[in-house]
Structure formats: C-alpha cells, structure tokens
Amino acid sequence: MSRISPRSPIIFSQSTLLRKPPPTEKKLECTLEELCYGCVKQIMTSRDVIINGITEQQGEMVNITVKPGWKKGTRITFEGKGDERPGYQPADLIFLIDEKPHLFFEREDDNLVYKAEIPLAQALGGCAISVPLLEGERMSLSFDIVLYPGYVKIIKGQGMPTAKEIGKRGDLRIKFLINFPMSLSPEQRFDASSILKDCSYLDFL
Q1: How many distinct structural domains can be found in the chain?
Q2: Which of 37, 58, 70, 153 counts the most CB atoms within 10 A of its CB?
Q3: Rounded to the nearest 5 degrees, what angle is found at the Cα of 149, between the Cα atoms of 72 and 71?
Q4: Residue 203: predicted pLDDT
Q5: Distance CA 62, CA 81 (A)
Q6: Which one, of 84, 22, 14, lies nearest residue 48 by Cα?
Q7: Could you tell me what percentage of the chain is helix, strand and coil, using 3-state DSSP and rounding each to the nearest 5?
Q8: Keyword Chaperone, does the record have it (predicted)?
Q9: Final residue of a structural domain among 43, 69, 99
Q10: Which helix (H) or strand (E) element contains residue 162?
Q11: For a pLDDT cut of 70, what percent of the chain falls above it?
C-alpha cells in the first residue's frame, strides 16, 4: 500500500493528466532455431507522431534480443514507442512472439515432437531410423521391439531450452505413425491372421 506524506508536495504535470491509449501490437515471427539459441532481430517500424500539431508517419529501427527458451505469446514492450494521438500519452509498442511452422518438429512447452512414419512390417519386425535434431545433425536409432501406433521414444535434453533455468532443456519426443497396407491377397491375410491370432494386445480403451 502506497502512502503520501503530508509534507510531500503533490505535483501535477501535463503528462500525468493525459490518458494512455491501448498499445500498438505487432507480431514477431521466429523460427524454432532462433527461439532455441537466441538471436537479435532488427525491425523497421513506423508510427504516427505529432510534429507542430501535424500527424506524420515516422520510421524507426528497433533491436530485439530474443532469448533462448522464449515461447509463442512472449511480450516485448517498448514504452512510448507506439502511435501518438492528440490529447493522449504516446502508446506503448508491443511485439508478440510467434513461432514459424517447422519442417520436422512441433513444440509442446519445452519439448519438441517429431513424428516418424514407418511401415507395418518394420513396426512388427524391428527397424532403424534416422531422426533429425534441431542443431542440424541426425541421430540413428534402432528398435527390436514392436512399435505400436502412438508409441513414444523420449530423447532427454534434445528439446527447447527452459527460459527460467539456464542450461536445462526439454526432451525430444519421437511419436511413431504406423502405415498399414492398403490391401492384402487372401494368402497374405490368412498368413497374417495365423501369425497374429495368439499375440497379446494393448488395450487402448
């Protein structure tokens, strides 16, 4: 709770009497790589300014330091750098972080999700896959287990940085999508049924 001392003078200025308009908001698109490792973006902005009572457009370059781990919706505020209107204080300029779609990954909080598609034969008989990493390298993984639809392999520490904990990263979650054959011959269907009829199954319900 704030207090005003009886001896403290109360000073009114023109700026304290002016209302502040809603902020000017702009979208700032970033790649997952930029949000992972950080970067500096130079953005040319334009705003309405009042010069000698006349409203004019004015351009200005602003530098934004994107920090590792920032997420979609992160707000960067430049106070008083928005549009000017007669009778109001200058508006604030706010940039909202937005994530560009990635070729391989989807982001879930601090984790990255990669969807690996494999044919049914490899899901049942074992397989080796090559998984991309955000750094640009690839990781080879081998599986000798049955990979069912929705199976997830977790690679620790290969996700996005945790903004509030320096040095900590989320995980890479590899989700398997199983491609089933479009058709089988009667002989193939009989053989498959004979092989699989006595297997144990997962209950997804």
Answers
A1: 2
A2: 70
A3: 5
A4: 66
A5: 10
A6: 84
A7: 15, 40, 45
A8: yes
A9: 99
A10: none
A11: 90
